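User: Show me a protein chain along with its predicted structure.
Assistant: Here is one chain, sequence first, then structure tokens.
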Amino acid sequence: MIDPYPPASDIGEILVTTDELRTRVDELGTQIAADLDGRTPLLVGVLKGSVIFIADLMRAIAGPVEIDFMAVSSYGDATESSGVVRIVKDLDGGVAGRDVILVEDIIDSGLTMAYLVDYLSGQGPASLRTCSLLVREGRTAPGVQLDYVGFELPPAFVVGYGLDAGQRYRNLPYIAIYSPSEPSGEGGSDSGGSA
């Protein structure tokens, strides 16, 4: 017999439903298209957690869209950020003269976003905006400017829609609190929270 997925013992309250995600991502895409007024955005996704969000977001933007990806590490295998951000995979192309939108899955402390904004700003984009599907209530560091936000969430560890716990649960079509009944030693490898 196949065990149910996800195990009910690991998934708590659903905070954002599939329909709420679809509606809000469509709204963000419409807003981005209006703000760029015909210019082609370069969406820069932060791997791995942003993959599902950026795929849906680019489909919600009317007109041409280009994408690239970066990978950073601030979590390792923990559920709390180490506070040290390092680039694991840089962009394949340049951002000079481009209208860049940095796309994150979740903002926790804002350290990763602040680091990447500083890093990308130094490469001469025509404009640089930020977009995060999720922001933790009351946890974002001062000075972190977010141009587009999907939802604010309580400071719980969450999974689904790209966010994981030990590489599991990214494929859930909603966002839920991760609440394993037995600690397994697994943590959010890159996203149940993001710095």
